[in-house]
Automatic annotation (TrEMBL):
Keywords: Flavoprotein, Oxidoreductase. This is NAD(P)/FAD-dependent oxidoreductase. InterPro entries: FAD/NAD-bd_sf, FAD/NAD-binding_dom, Ferredoxin-NADP_redctase_2. The lineage of its organism: Bacteria, Pseudomonadati, Pseudomonadota, Gammaproteobacteria, Moraxellales. Transmembrane segments: none annotated. Residues 3-279 form the FAD/NAD(P)-binding domain. The keyword Flavoprotein applies. It comes from the Bacteria. Pfam families: Pyr_redox_2. The keyword Flavoprotein applies.
Amino acid sequence: MQHDVAIIGGSYAGLAAAMPLARARRNVVIIDAGQRRNRFAEYSHGFLTRDGTKASEIAQIAKEQVLAYKTVQWEDGSVKRIEKVNDGFAVCIDATRSVTARRLIIAAGITDQLPEISGLAERWGKTIFHCPYCHGYELNQGKIGIIASSEHSAHMAMMLPDWGKTTIFINDYPVPDELLVQLKARGVHIENRAIQEITGQSDVVLADGSVIQLDGIFATTKCTIAQDWIFKLGCEIEQNAIGEAIKTNSMKETSVAGIFACGDVARLGSSVPLAVGDGTMAGAAAHRSLIFG
């Protein structure tokens, strides 16, 4: 059976993409490897009607609602290869089976490369975060840290005083002097001593043994596309200080005909609401392309 659309990635963006296609009674297959990007965070915030809900619960309810449509099929597994075939694409899953589809929506997410600081990875999504809009409010105007690790760090540090008393840990990262002046004007404390490790809830141990206790820490990551098959498809990739993403137009079309992309893999800067919005657009656009070419 040839599907109308194969969606790679069954998290928020992929499920949102499936919904308009399902409601148009199109045959859809969703292929998911079970590695939701925000699986490290227990709760999701800032999504209308679901604010403060468990992130896993939102994903599970979405899956149940989409699979209630009889034309939607779910495949557990990892995509290993995609080949262009007549009138569509052949998608190899786990090197054991394949499906074909006329259109392809990539919602495969990205991989976060975390700063290499002892104790950070274990606290990622719990007391160390990437987005103040998603997690800043719950820190209750407490003491907040931001670790300088990219060009985006100073930008985030300028924002964070709206959520609490902020310290930026330079940690040997080259922050321009003019930005340091702006940060001080915003009331941000500049900490130049290097970080040795992070312990406790979110306590920063410095190289001289001093400990700074915080209510939460923010850190920027390098977002990378881990799936080699995406590059082999020839989709144009865009890059900036945050990382890399598949380039799309306003209808979520990639540079390759018949392929759409949505969610974190196609947006430099992301959240659950944005993923859902992008996914809905990608699904609707893929449906229209089946009709109008």
